[in-house]
Design goal:
The protein is α+β, with helices and mostly antiparallel strands. The chain folds into three domains: about 110 residues, no CATH class; about 120 residues, Alpha-Beta Plaits, CATH 3.30.70.330; about 110 residues, Alpha-Beta Plaits. Helix content is about 50%, strand content about 10%. It is built from 18 helices and eleven strands. Helix 2 crosses helix 7, helix 3 crosses helix 4 and helix 3 packs parallel to helix 8. It starts with 19 loop residues before the first helix and ends with a helix. The relative contact order is 0.07.
Length: about 400
C-alpha cells in the first residue's frame, strides 16, 4: 500500500530506537567510562607551574617588604601588603593556608582550593624556595632568615642599610644555569657545603646599584642575564661565600675556581676601579681655545621686519626655534645645503649660526636679506654657549676645513 512521504516512519542517526533485548543486556552490564587522563593531568600540571611562578614573584621577601614600604608611604592605614609583612615578621605558630589566600593580593583569584595551594607550596619549597619556610598541617611557618629580611627592610629608613650586608655578587656561574630558579638552586648547593641554605633573591647588578641601593622604586622581575648577579643571603652566609670563593681583583680569571664572590663593599670598590680605568682609557676631547676666535665669520643676522627679497616667513605665530626651523631653514638650505647649525632670536633679528665661514659667505651671496653679525656680538654669543656645544661645533668646522678648503 502506498504511504505518503509525510507519514513514512523516518529514522535518524540521533534517534535510533534500541531493541528491547539489547537494552536489557546493556542495563545489566557494568557501565565503564574511560576518562582521558592525559589532557586533564597536563592542565593540572600547567596550572600548578603557573601558580608556583606567581608565588615566587609575589612571596619573595624583597617583593613583600618593598610593596609594604610603598603602601606605608602612600596609605598609612592597614593595607594588604603591610598586613602580610606584619604576619610574616611576627612568625608565631605560622599562617594557615586559608588565611594566606586572603592575605596575598591576587592569590585567591588564581588558586581556588587549599589543596592546590599546598601542592604549589610543596613544589616551590623543593626548588627555588628551599630554606624559605616549612609546611605542616596546612600551616606555613617562615624561616628566621626570611622573616628577618622582611622585618628589617620594612623597618629600615633606607633600603641600603638593611640590604647591603645581605648582598653577595657572584660571577662565573656555569653556562648551564639559565634561569633565576636554577641560579637559586645552584647557590643553595654551594651553601650546603658550609653555612647552609637560604637564597632569598637573584637581582641584576644595575637594579641593585641604581635603584635598590638608591632607595628608589624598582621592578624586581626584570630580565636577568645569566652567569652573574647579586644574591640575597643571610649576612653570615655572605661572609662564608666570600671566604670560600674569594675574588682576587688583580687576576681576571680563576681557572681552578668555579665561581668567585664579592660582598657589596667589595663590589663598590671594584666598580670604582673599573670606572677609573674606563676614564683613563677614554680619549680626551679636543680642547677649544677661546683666544683663537675660530668661530669668526660663522654667524649671520636676519633683521626683522624682513626687507624685500627671496626669503618669506608667514605672519604671526610664536617666533621660537621650531618656527624658524620649519619656515626659514628649508629656504636657506635650498640655496646652500647642510649649512645651518642653529637659529634663534637675537635682539631685533634672527641669529643664524652656520657650520663654516665658507657656508656663511655662500648664504650671503644667495640671499641679500642676510647680513654678517658684528664681531663683538658674535664673540658674546659664542662665549655663552655650553662647552659641549662649542666642542661639537669646532670638531665639525675642522672636518669641513678638509672638505671645503
Amino acid at each position: 500500500m502506498f504511504v505518503p512521504r509525510k507519514l513514512q516512519k523516518r529514522t535518524h542517526p540521533g534517534r535510533a530506537q534500541p531493541r528491547t533485548g539489547e537494552h536489557d543486556q546493556d542495563a545489566c552490564a557494568p557501565q565503564t567510562h574511560e576518562t582521558p587522563a592525559g589532557p586533564s593531568l597536563a592542565v593540572d600540571a600547567g596550572k600548578l607551574e603557573r601558580l608556583v611562578e606567581f608565588l615566587h614573584t609575589v612571596l619573595s621577601p624583597l617583593h613583600v617588604a618593598l610593596a609594604a614600604r610603598d603602601e606605608e608611604r602612600t596609605h598609612p592605614a592597614s593595607t594588604p601588603w603591610s598586613d602580610l609583612a606584619a604576619a610574616i615578621a611576627a612568625r608565631g605558630s605560622g599562617i594557615h593556608l586559608a588565611r594566606l589566600l586572603q592575605l596575598v593580593p591576587g592569590l585567591a583569584t588564581r588558586c581556588k582550593s587549599i589543596s592546590l595551594l599546598e601542592a604549589a607550596l610543596t613544589t616551590w619549597q623543593a626548588g627555588a624556595a628551599a630554606g624559605w619556610f616549612s609546611l605542616e598541617a596546612f600551616r606555613i611557618t617562615w624561616s628566621d632568615g626570611y622573616a628577618d629580611i622582611v622585618r628589617h627592610l620594612v623597618a629600615a629608613k633606607e633600603i641600603a642599610e638593611a640590604l647591603g650586608p645581605r648582598l653577595a655578587y657572584i660571577e662565573c656561574i656555569p653556562p648551564a644555569v639559565r634561569t633565576r630558579a636554577q641560579a637559586t638552586e645552584y647557590v643553595a648547593r654551594l651553601l650546603k657545603a658550609g653555612a647552609g641554605g637560604g637564597v632569598f633573591g637573584v637581582l641584576e647588578p644595575a637594579v641593585v646599584q641604581h635603584a635598590l641601593m638608591a632607595d628608589k622604586t624598582v621592578e624586581l622581575g626584570a630580565r636577568w642575564v645569566s652567569g652573574r648577579g647579586f644574591f640575597v643571603l643571610d649576612a653570615r652566609r655572605v661572609e662564608h661565600l666570600c671566604d670560600t670563593h674569594p675574588w682576587d681583583l688583580a687576576q681576571r680569571v680563576h681557572r681552578e675556581e668555579p665561581v668567585r664572590c664579592l660582598s657589596w663593599p667589595q663590589w663598590e670598590r671594584l666598580h670604582a676601579m673599573y670606572t677609573a680605568h674606563q676614564l683613563a682609557q677614554r680619549p680626551a676631547a679636543p680642547s677649544v681655545k677661546m683666544e683663537h676666535k675660530w668661530w669668526r665669520g660663522t654667524m649671520l643676522l636676519l633683521c626683522l621686519p624682513f626687507r624685500e627679497g627671496s626669503l618669506h616667513v608667514p605672519e604671526g605665530g610664536d617666533r621660537t626655534v621650531g618656527f624658524w626651523n620649519r619656515h626659514l631653514k628649508p629656504q636657506l638650505e635650498r640655496g646652500v645645503p647642510e649649512s645651518i647649525a642653529y637659529m634663534h632670536m637675537h635682539q631685533d633679528g634672527v641669529a643664524i649660526r652656520t657650520a663654516h665661514p665658507v657656508y656663511a659667505t655662500q648664504l650671503l651671496a644667495h640671499f641679500a636679506q642676510l647680513d654678517r653679525m658684528p664681531p663683538r656680538d658674535e664673540d658674546d654669543l659664542w662665549c655663552q654657549l655650553p662647552a659641549k656645544v662649542q666642542t661639537a661645533a669646532h670638531t665639525r668646522l675642522l672636518t669641513l676645513d678638509r672638505k671645503l678648503i
